[in-house]
Amino acid sequence: MTLPNHFAPEPIRFAYWVPNVSGGLVISKIEQRTSWDADYNRKLAQIAEAAGFDYALTQIRFTAGYGAEFQHESVAFSHALLAVTTKLKVIAALLPGPWNPTIAAKQIATISQLTNGRIAINVVSGWFSGEFRAIGEPWLDHDERYRRSEEFIRSLRGIWTQDDFTFRGDFYRYTNYTLKPKPADPQPEIFQGGSSRAARDMAARVSDWYFTNGNTPEGIRAQVDDIQAKASANGHSVKVGVNAFVIARDTEEEARAVLQEILDNADPDAVKAFGHEVKNAGKASPEGEGNWAKSSFEDLVQYNDGFKTNLIGTPDQIAERIVALKDAGVDLALLAFLHFQEDVAYFGAHIIPKVRALEAARERRAEAA
Ligand SMILES: Cc1cc2nc3c(=O)[nH]c(=O)nc-3n(C[C@H](O)[C@H](O)[C@H](O)COP(=O)(O)O)c2cc1C
């Protein structure tokens, strides 16, 4: 038999969203036992590590808005999670503008040294103009934000890998700069978030990982084909992570009922205001294919379109859909939950083993073929 185009022998990786901002990962008044505080998050990181998660992703927000009333800072918080785990890699979100590459390179190199190379970064390019205004940062046009992010990434890589690093960009400049100590091995992996053409082009040139919003396997495959074609033309290789909100129950009806309850309790004003903000942020993206370009009201109740990926059903259905994502070229599933500690433990006990069994069966079929 023939296997799907993108089927990769490596096991799919799992990451979870660190709830380091308040309100959980849905804009809904449904009861959530998730907390944004440090103790809850330290315990969650240990649960996730034991459950078989490879990565945790922190978020960066500088101001409140649409639910995130309190927000812990991403780099400091990532280090706190690394301090209580031994294998988990933590991805710290960095926003060029508030961060410059000099400070970011130094901070991350030190954390890398302190944690045997378990720190990674997620370069985000900004969607919240009100946040930039509040902190006195210029709000650049969409594609200019990506031009700056690309220079930010090139600067980080140069500082981390070269002595006497010299760089002449429009946003950043270095002259014979040598960082000591450099990060520990392995080098910090560079993730990025965004789905627009500018985001995909940047991924195909400089990022190790492309993170995108929730989507169907067909929607993901179109992005993967585009990125991988461009990356191979550039002699670059990039992996893909997709967001999903997981609701696992004994029956599909029960899982769908939970989704309905989340939607019924959505805060309509907050969801509409968030929708206005993100669509406005993507407007300058000339081709109109940004992260939220096609999001409906229901999609926006989860910040990154996580219901669209449809990991909502029984453990068997969820495992099969994860393998379908892998067939579409996904290397990592980035997951959010309603009650993080309980749901992450459940996912590790009941869903990851099913995914591994399906992958092993695929592998055997591939060998036989
Ligand atoms: C997985 C993921 C994580 C993100 N995390 C953050 C974050 O912590 N802070 C932030 O301001 N933006 C975050 N973003 C938003 C992106 O940086 C970007 O602004 C947004 O996806 C719009 O990009 P686009 O219009 O190019 O598609 C994230 C996006 C994704 C996909």
TrEMBL record:
Gene3D superfamilies in UniProt: Luciferase-like domain
EC number(s) stated in the UniProt entry for this protein: 1.14.14.5
Keywords: Flavoprotein, FMN, Monooxygenase, Oxidoreductase
Entries under Pfam families matching the protein: Bac_luciferase
InterPro entries: DMSO2_SphG (IPR024014), Luciferase-like_dom (IPR011251), Luciferase-like_sf (IPR036661), SsuD_RutA_monooxygenase (IPR050172)
Presence of the UniProt keyword Thylakoid in the record: no
Main EC class the enzyme belongs to: oxidoreductase
Keyword Flavoprotein annotated: yes
Molecular-function GO terms, alphabetical: alkanesulfonate monooxygenase activity
Domain Luciferase-like: 28-331
Organism domain of life: Bacteria
GO BP term (any one): alkanesulfonate catabolic process
PANTHER family: ALKANESULFONATE MONOOXYGENASE, ALKANESULFONATE MONOOXYGENASE-RELATED
Identification of the protein by name: Alkanesulfonate monooxygenase
Gene name of the encoded protein: ssuD_2
